[in-house]
Amino acid sequence: MNTVTNTTRATARSLDGVSLHFLIIGGGPAGYQAATYAARLGAKVTIVERDVFGGAANLWDCIPSKTMIATGGAMSFSRRLQGMGLAQAAPEVDIESLTSRVQGIQHELNDDIKQLLQSQGVTMINGTARFTGPNTAEADGPDGTRTIEFDAALVSTGSRPRIPDWCSPDGDRILTTRDCYPPKSFPESITVIGSGVTGVEFVHMFSSFGAEVALVVSRQHVLPGKDPEVAGVLEDDFIARGVKLLKGARAETIERDDETGGVVVRCDDGRVVRSSHAVLAIGSVPNTDGLGLDAAGVETDDWGYIPVNHHCVTNQRHIYAAGDVSGKLPLASVASMQGRKVAEHVMGLHTVEHRHLDYDKAASAIFTEPEIADVGLAEAEAFSSGRKIRVTKVPFATTAKAHINNDPRGFVKIISDPATGVVLGGSIVGRHAAELISVIALAVTANLKVSDIYESLLVHPALSEALAEAAE
Ligand SMILES: Cc1cc2nc3c(=O)[nH]c(=O)nc-3n(C[C@H](O)[C@H](O)[C@H](O)COP(=O)(O)OP(=O)(O)OC[C@H]3O[C@@H](n4cnc5c(N)ncnc54)[C@H](O)[C@@H]3O)c2cc1C
């Protein structure tokens, strides 16, 4: 089969109702979304997954971390109950029931995904797949090795935690983020290395459960790349909770401490931190090794990611890459949307009705306390490019609901075009920020104006009143 003509022929075949065979390697958000959607559109789909359908997102990343953060959040919220007219002793964490809660949610979601795939007639193979040629692959699994021929394929194999050469995680005291679920026990004290999104979420999680936390921050503030004002609110909260911030320091070694049984982290500026545990949160690397990409003629960049165009097509026209392996925004929400766009493209729908993915308009959230969310153009980005913007900021403390909730922290910031009023971006710090950002995300995607927000009849009393005020 010829790889270049295949896509065209396959697309035409799919549109006139004859099945195109679409192989998907990796059953995370990118893979299972592409599989179900392409199958619904008429493709014959095979998906190969070596762990669980649902992917690392359900097994290691989004779901377990957010479930534990929700429990930690409930604990820290309980500390504010007195201010709400309730007398309540602080609850204690019960690791066994927390573990079964995390696993219960994971199983439920994984079962739902399997049922969804089944209901769309997708062939599911448990195994590890690799390409053996431009249109062939093999999957090794419990039932032996299967050869698969395909017309089009999607690589959605995700990523794994980056482990630097100066540290050897042992899964006991020196941890990667994947060693934290299910929790065997809660650390008395922990040093978190890395102050990006994952790092600060781990700081929040462990400190909510009562651990003494130190955070190694390589720059001068946490969350590099985010609005410094937003990062500042989070730092204030960390400091108020007693988190030790080691700013401008890079960890150089992490070793077991024979004296205490814990760990010792040494930084490049001479500072030394001792704690019972340490966790690495310094980014991820793509799962592209051992995939036989050479056999399929698919190129990777210097870091192992697979470069793609705006349709997630690789340098091979019939092979796509989506999700973390594509080196775009490493978010489950983005991976899912890429998966859907791939399905549309492989079935030829991009010529009919198709909105290109615009990564600059992706909303994202950080599940700390206060919660943080943003979308679209950032204030600092506009200033550095010299773009004229209008910035309005309203603290939640101006709303009745924040006081009713006994939590007046945070603010809403809306960035708009001063000439047209079109909403360009925004950030929210505070309770339910991850939900509230949807309003600004919709405005950014649909090119709505600030007047569309402030003329909406919103609920009272609600935190969204701060959104309407910021839009005014
Ligand atoms: C701690 C943490 C928390 C996060 N929280 C969030 C969050 O709250 N919100 C959010 O949007 N994002 C979050 N993310 C990011 C999110 O988890 C990823 O962006 C998302 O999982 C990427 O989806 P994916 O489909 O690319 O890959 P994955 O979810 O990684 O799935 C890839 C799948 O491919 C399988 N696979 C790999 N190689 C092969 C092979 N050769 N054969 C067969 N199968 C294979 C793997 O087993 C895996 O199941 C978080 C990340 C981390 C580390």
UniProtKB/TrEMBL annotation:
Which Gene3D superfamilies does this entry report, sorted A to Z?
3.30.390.30, FAD/NAD(P)-binding domain
What's the domain of life for this entry?
Answer: Bacteria
| Residues where NAD(+) binds | 194-201, 283
Pfam families with a match to the protein in the record: Pyr_redox_2, Pyr_redox_dim
Required co-factor(s) are: FAD
Could you tell me what the cofactor note in this record states? Binds 1 FAD per subunit.
* Domain FAD/NAD(P)-binding, first and last residues per copy: 22-339
Give a GO molecular function annotation for the protein: NAD(P)H dehydrogenase (quinone) activity
Position of the signal peptide: none
InterPro entries listed in its UniProt record: Ala_DH/PNT_CS2 (IPR008143), FAD/NAD-bd_sf (IPR036188), FAD/NAD-binding_dom (IPR023753), FAD/NAD-linked_Rdtase_dimer_sf (IPR016156), Pyr_nuc-diS_OxRdtase (IPR001100), Pyr_nucl-diS_OxRdtase_dimer (IPR004099)
Q: Coiled-coil stretches, from where to where? A: none
Which residues are recorded as binding FAD? 66, 157-159, 324
Pyridine nucleotide-disulphide oxidoreductase dimerisation domain mapped to chain residues: 363-471
Question: Quick check: keyword Transmembrane in the entry?
Answer: no
Q: Which UniProt keywords apply?
A: FAD, Flavoprotein, NAD, Nucleotide-binding, Oxidoreductase
- Family indicated by similarity: Belongs to the class-I pyridine nucleotide-disulfide oxidoreductase family.
What name does this protein carry? Dihydrolipoamide dehydrogenase
Source organism of this protein record: Ilumatobacter fluminis
- Give the classification, highest ranks: Bacteria, Bacillati, Actinomycetota, Acidimicrobiia, Acidimicrobiales
